[in-house]
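Good morning,

Attaching, inline, the backbone tokens for the sequence recovery test we're adding to the shared suite. The designed sequence is right after.
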């Protein structure tokens, strides 16, 4: 999805983790890389496809050992040209341990017995970067559970309901990207990995919504 902002680059913001996974400072910037958090984690995103973007999806996984109630969590998409959110998708239902949730258009074939929730539009739900970002926001506790900045570093994001600005980068920003030349996605490699550095954990993948992440 090509943004309609006058400039297509540069954003900053910070990511706040839940109590089980470390904390950010009161100024809205992340402290040293925290231990691997329990709970929800972004695991794969396909934001750009050849032609019109009709097969977008965002995959989330529960890496905790308890069932997660999703009704207090929103997927927030952040525009890198303005550092503010441009779309918000509330989650719903329950997600058991090791289960995956895929937010997708109707054109996406989701496997792996994953839970599926629809994205609001048939196409162009997720902007194509330079940079842009997304975050899982716990709206009750007003924290970011996980986040990703792609095609650059988004380090001062403003998210409605959260104080200050937040970095969506953990460690170093992801150096690889999705594109519209060949089918692909960004995903954690190996599946569900979190070392505390985005560039280590995220890479270009074969799209596998609901399934185990795989290299092209």
């Amino acid at each position: 999805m090509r943004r309609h902002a006058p400039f297509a680059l540069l954003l900053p913001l910070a990511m706040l983790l839940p109590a089980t996974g470390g904390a950010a400072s009161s100024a809205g910037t992340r402290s040293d890389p925290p231990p691997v958090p329990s709970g929800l984690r972004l695991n794969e995103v396909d934001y750009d496809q050849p032609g019109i973007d009709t097969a977008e999806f965002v995959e989330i996984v529960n890496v905790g050992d308890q069932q997660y109630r999703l009704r207090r969590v929103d997927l927030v998409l952040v525009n890198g040209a303005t550092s503010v959110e441009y779309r918000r998708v509330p989650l719903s239902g329950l997600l058991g341990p090791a289960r995956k949730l895929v937010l997708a258009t109707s054109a996406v074939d989701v496997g792996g017995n994953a839970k599926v929730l629809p994205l609001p539009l048939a196409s162009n739900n997720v902007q194509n970067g330079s940079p842009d970002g997304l975050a899982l926001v716990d709206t009750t506790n007003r924290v970011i559970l996980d986040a990703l900045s792609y095609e650059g570093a988004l380090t001062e994001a403003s998210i409605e309901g959260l104080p200050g600005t937040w970095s969506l980068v953990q460690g170093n920003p992801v150096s690889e990207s999705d594109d519209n030349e060949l089918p692909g996605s960004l995903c954690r490699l190996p599946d569900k990995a979190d070392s505390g550095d985005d560039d280590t954990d995220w890479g270009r993948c074969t799209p596998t919504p609901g399934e185990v992440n795989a290299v092209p």
